[in-house]
Amino acid sequence: MSDRLLLDLVRDDLVSCAWACGEISVLSDGTPWRPLIDVTDMARAIEWATGREAATGGPVLSVNVGANGWNHQVKDLPAAVADAVPTTRVRVNTAAAPDRRSYRVGCSLYARLAPAHQPRSSLAQSIARLRDGLGRMGFADPEFRGSSLIRLKVQERLIAAGQLTPDLRWATGQAAAA
Fold this sequence. Notes:
The strands form two sheets. The chain has a two-stranded parallel ribbon. A two-stranded antiparallel ribbon has the order 2-3. It folds into two domains: 137 residues, Rossmann fold (3-Layer(aba) Sandwich); 31 residues, no CATH class. The chain is built from seven helices and four strands, in the order H-E-E-H-E-H-E-H-H-H-H. The chain is mostly helical. The mean pLDDT is 90.
């Protein structure tokens, strides 16, 4: 586990809530899609990208990394987390307005170009690794959403301190200090 772990991705947030609070509350209606990938599979994708020949997809390539079957609706994730953290209580606000931020992506191009580097970690394995890592690091902060483990909070603090500009560029001389 990284000491710079970021918990503002949906899977990470839900596992952290289950671990530290014993409860997951999905505040939206849960219908949005999220493409998920384990960090180990992303590392394999980076390995492929840095070593690939330009003939494989051209000299500059934009590709969705992951697997088509690993797009999940938010409402389905709490049950997977509760399987890994059995004492978790789950609440989904089915009366909430639909969340329009949905990110269902196609990964067919990646599957075709990088068949030997396809994701291997299942959702259950990824959740279990995160759960175990939180346990090893002694994570127990039920207020983690306001902490430095949330990228947006770090950005807000850096902007307020004048270290980062509102368009997310380092202020003069700050890149080296960070």
